[in-house]
Specification:
The chain is α+β, with helices and mostly antiparallel strands. The chain is 49% helix and 20% strand. The chain has three helices and three strands; from the N terminus they run ααββαβ.
Length: 106
């Protein structure tokens, strides 16, 4: 199990590495500029959720808009799992706020 988590974190780093290095210093206003930033935030949140080793958190969908607002949806078995997902998203670098639409379905 440890190897699976480690492999997931490494894979996320390989995939996100080029995105992290993308130039955000320009004043570009096109949607591709925002897309890179949003993808990085979404991937960070998903990676941290996966690292929690709770299979129930993998049923949560994560989306991020251009302002760093994370949208969580899907289902979780308990309110504690919903709260954990929200806390993880709120504490992720680059997230400005979280809209939680996760349904509790045991």
């Amino acid at each position: 199990m440890k190897h699976l988590v480690l492999a997931s974190v490494i894979a996320a780093g390989v995939v996100c590495g080029p995105m992290v290095l993308a130039d955000e210093s320009g004043t570009a206003t096109d949607s591709s500029h925002h897309y890179v930033k949003d993808s990085v935030i979404t991937t960070k949140v998903k990676t941290i959720l996966a690292a929690q080793r709770l299979s129930t958190l993998t049923r949560i969908t994560v989306d991020t808009d251009e302002n760093g607002v994370v949208w969580l949806s899907g289902r979780a078995p308990t309110q504690n799992a919903v709260d954990l997902a929200t806390m993880i998203a709120l504490n992720t670098d680059g997230v400005t706020s979280v809209h939680n639409e996760i349904a509790v379905q045991p």
